[in-house]
Amino acid sequence: MEDKTDLMQKIVSLCKRRGFVFPGSEIYGGFAGFWDYGHYGLMLKQNIKNLWWQKFVRGREDLFGIDSAIILNPKVWETSGHVSGFSDPTQDGGRFNTMFQTSVGAGEDAVTSYLRPETAQGIFANFKNYLDAFSPALPFGIAQIGKAFRNEISPRDFIFRTREFEQMEIEYFIKEKNWQEFFEEWRKEMKGWIENIGVDPARLHELEVPDKERAHYSKRTIDFEFDFPFGRKELCGLAYRTDFDLKSHMEASSADLSYFDEETKEKFVPHCIEPSFGLDRLVLALLVSAYDEDEMNGEKRIVLRLKPEIAPVQIAVFPLLRNKPQLVEKARGIYQKLKANSSKLTDIFDDNGNIGKRYRRQDEIGTPFCVTIDFQTLEDDTVTIRDRDTGEQERVLSGEILQFTKLG
Ligand code: ATP
What we know:
Blueprint: H1 4-17, E1 21-23, E2 35-37, H2 39-58, E3 63-66, H3 74-80, H4 82-85, E4 87-89, E5 95-97, E6 101-104, E7 111-114, H5 120-124, H6 127-134, E8 140-149, E9 164-174, H7 179-196, E10 204-208, E11 220-228, E12 231-242, H8 244-253, E13 259-261, E14 266-268, E15 271-278, H9 279-290, E16 291-296, E17 299-304, E18 315-319, H10 325-341, E19 347-349, H11 355-365, E20 369-373, H12 375-380, E21 382-387, E22 393-397, H13 401-405
Parallel strand pairs: 3-8, 18-19, 18-20
Antiparallel strand pairs: 1-2, 4-5, 6-7, 8-9, 9-15, 10-11, 11-12, 12-15, 13-14, 16-17, 20-21, 21-22
Helix pairs in contact: 2-9, 3-8
Adenosine-5'-triphosphate is lined by residues 150, 152, 161-162, 165, 167, 234-237, 276, 278, 280-281.
């Protein structure tokens, strides 16, 4: 794994071979900056999203969720500064606005709007609705998971820089005087969660973004960077957006976006801290962290050492031989029972190829446990459970698989 280009190629190839990520529109020669997630990539993404939602929304009292529209009134993007300022330099010295334009409506009524380049503005545009509907007390946050689009001038590095991607963002509203305290709290929360899902801490770094390089709305930004095989690059970001967005929208829309503090009887526009996570970059960072090659029983293998809660599949169930109906029937029964007993778990049934091939396949997907049903199972209802990382096998009662693997 010394050769860095080589590692990227290996990951891209594994993703295609095993159904994680395919080049977008591939049968037409692809389409730069767009990728399609296959079944296992999708499950990996879903696991990350669920853990994120569980940690930052369901697991807290002060967070609300939202699913706002992807296309907003163009005035939102004029006010937020994106129409005038969301641009990248081009090679000939000009600037190119990276928002995707689209035409909404027909004929003379058509207006130009944009595919959102960040999910955050849908949150700010709904701030008043949240005050009215939920009467939240500060501090509180609004979280959104959804697609964002940027017409990147040169999309590259697999799913790192794409033109369509997914963000998980929180706008956490506070009183101005508390911003440092909450910035620090979110910095720790972000780092803790990123490491907890299995991103290699040795590759994770925090970068204090200097004044000149910060976005126009931010007074302080920390980028969480990751050592990708192609260099140290931004994985996620934490920004103190002040009251810039709410104030701008309040002025431009003339809606009252101020908050009334019941205790102090003050009326003011809240400030906000923004933890912003890029889902596709997290997927890539997890794959880079988990990818390994070793030797097991004298054979070389590729293995994804993903945490069980992140892995696309947690348990693979095999009948030792596919041509023995009794074994297949018994294995199917155990597989169905696992499915019925845990809604959190993904199990698959696999009787394709010999057992060695099935192990290799599951190792490449990152499946932590393989359960094999053999002739002894028919006698005493025990199965073997093989551990992905050690290759060790243990016999346990089929009814105790969830307990043994701690997946129940
Ligand atoms: P970069 O400097 O790499 O272009 P950015 O600073 O423009 O990123 P932000 O505007 O802070 O990114 O967006 C928040 C998050 O959205 C990023 O931390 C990243 O995870 C994700 N993201 C941004 N642009 C892309 C992209 N083109 N492809 C995939 N993810 C992206």
